[in-house]
Amino acid sequence: MAIITGNYPEIERIDTGCWSLNRALGGGWPMTTAEVYGFAGVFKSTFSLSVLACVAEHYKKKLLYSPIEPTDVKLVNRILDSVGFTQETHISMEKTDEELIDKFCEFLGKDEYCAGLFDSLTSISPIMEMESSSADMNMGRRARLAGVLARKLVHLNRFRTSPVTSILLSHITQSLSPTPTNTGSSTSGGEVKKNLSKIRIKARLMTEPTMRELEENAVVMEGLVEKYNFGRDKLKFYVCILGGKGIHKGMTAMYDCKMTRLCTFGSSITLDGKKYGRMREIVAKAHAGDDEFFQPFINALQNPSKISKPNEDEELYEDEEAL
């Protein structure tokens, strides 16, 4: 067995309460820097706030949120409440994006904080760009600021006495370079940020037939771990997000059961031979806070050998009757 000396700390991983998300990241959310990206409207902010709230609640420390894009404070509060977050959240607001970046790193350097969300790299506008004419050329300035942010976070993770994690939000973009790279999807913020992010997660919405009339009430986000420096990459995970709220761990467990073929979706959700009702009724239970209803799905993921799986020739969707 190899012998490693020195005081270099282990990467801590925090249980998110979401089975496939934990599995895709080697047992939980790692305390490091991550980039979450995708097209607009795929619930990147909601997902990231929910996850970081779970982390901050675990450590009983503060959460930092630095939005450049307009945000609804009441919605942020509902997202945090829905995942049981009870600690303090600081929403940072500065005059310039340079100041916002500096404050983001300054606050995360304090031991009272353990998690921060920067939303988003696409919206960064350097002082030079803001104060100049729209005809002036400012190519590369936004990527430089994103690179400065990423480098500061790398050093911050190295020298803090307690673990910290941060998520940088960005969007998928079309690469302007004629030279292909091996760093994955092109996103706003430049190559430095892509190289220094230890986790890169590509988010998209699933087309879930049984929720086709319920998109305003519940959606399923698929995450592809495109890059993972601390384990196997290219794994997928799924989270269910309630409209106007955050991740719902019970519905997420139910969807994970579907994807692992432990249950079937149809006119009624069926697990281990028992029918649990229509999707519309189940989403209503989730909004009402009936956590006990979803416990069988959580238990099934913990002990899959005790669950009678559907027959191999049985369709995952039992039928297409009205919901």
Write up this protein.
This protein is an alpha/beta fold. The protein folds into 2 domains: 13-130 and 139-175 and 184-247, P-loop containing nucleotide triphosphate hydrolases (Rossmann fold), CATH 3.40.50.300; 248-323, no CATH class. The protein has helices at 19-24, 44-59, 73-82, 97-108, 127-131, 141-159, 190-196, 249-259, 279-288, 295-302; strands spanning 13-14, 29-30, 33-38, 62-67, 89-91, 113-119, 165-171, 199-205, 218-228, 236-242, 263-264, 270-271, 274-275. The longest helix has 19 residues, at 141-159.
Question: TL;DR of this structure?
Answer:
The chain has 323 residues and is an alpha/beta fold. The protein has helices at residues 19-24, 44-59, 73-82, 97-108, 127-131, 141-159, 190-196, 249-259, 279-288, 295-302, and strands at residues 13-14, 29-30, 33-38, 62-67, 89-91, 113-119, 165-171, 199-205, 218-228, 236-242, 263-264, 270-271, 274-275. It has two domains: 13-130 and 139-175 and 184-247, P-loop containing nucleotide triphosphate hydrolases (Rossmann fold, 3-Layer(aba) Sandwich), CATH 3.40.50.300; 248-323, no CATH class.
